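Input (structure):
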């Protein structure tokens, strides 16, 4: 079958349009915790890295989306990478409220907490928060933002004047509203250098974390 030049031009134009459309849409998978398109690694900015650094994080072990039942939560793995690569100290936000919960009941509880604005208690405290100039803050993305227990931490500790660097683990939601919500919680802090990574990638993702840290000056 012969194809004239007009028909060939139409076919090539249509194929190009389809290719562009696919590239713009990308992978639109979202997890049930988030509802936002994936944003894997936003452009990192160099930050002020003077002074001592602290990694504050919440991580959920047990039944997790995509990775199954794990002994070490996705966010903790990233937090451990950060501490190993930078020498930063750690404070893990721990609560027994979610222990032993299957994935879907935990999702339902997280949604209810968010709707009610609950602030679940957590264990432990930081006695010397003023000693740290840079604070990494990390967690999973639950229904588009941080788990509510992290907002309990935000309400308890004043990070005004500090450099705050957010990082998230997710299964399609990227950073969600985490950066904007952190800026609302700490309007007098410098919130910058954010990073996100898929939870199912963290166990082989040390090199990506290291690349991000170098971009922001660590």
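Output (sequence):
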């Amino acid at each position: 079958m012969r194809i004239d030049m007009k028909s060939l031009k139409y076919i090539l134009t249509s194929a190009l349009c389809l290719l562009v459309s696919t590239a713009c849409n990308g992978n639109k998978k979202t997890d049930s915790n988030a509802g936002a398109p994936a944003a894997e690694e936003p452009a990192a900015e160099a930050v002020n890295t003077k002074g001592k650094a602290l990694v504050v994080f919440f991580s959920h072990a047990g039944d997790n989306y995509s990775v199954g039942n794990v002994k070490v939560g996705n966010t903790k793995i990233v937090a451990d990478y950060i501490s190993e690569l930078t020498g930063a100290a750690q404070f893990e936000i721990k609560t027994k409220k979610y222990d032993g919960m299957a994935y879907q009941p935990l999702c339902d509880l997280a949604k209810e907490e968010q709707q009610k604005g609950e602030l679940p208690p957590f264990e432990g405290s930081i006695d010397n928060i003023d000693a740290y100039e840079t604070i990494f803050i990390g967690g999973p993305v639950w229904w588009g933002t941080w788990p509510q227990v992290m907002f309990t931490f935000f309400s308890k500790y004043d990070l005004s004047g500090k450099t705050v660097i957010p990082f998230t683990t997710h299964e399609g939601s990227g950073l969600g509203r985490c950066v904007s919500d952190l800026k609302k919680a700490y309007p007098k802090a410098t919130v910058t250098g954010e990073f996100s990574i898929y939870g199912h990638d963290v166990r082989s993702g040390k090199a990506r974390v290291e690349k991000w840290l170098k971009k922001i000056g660590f």
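Notes: The radius of gyration is 20 Å. DSSP finds six helices and eight strands in the chain.
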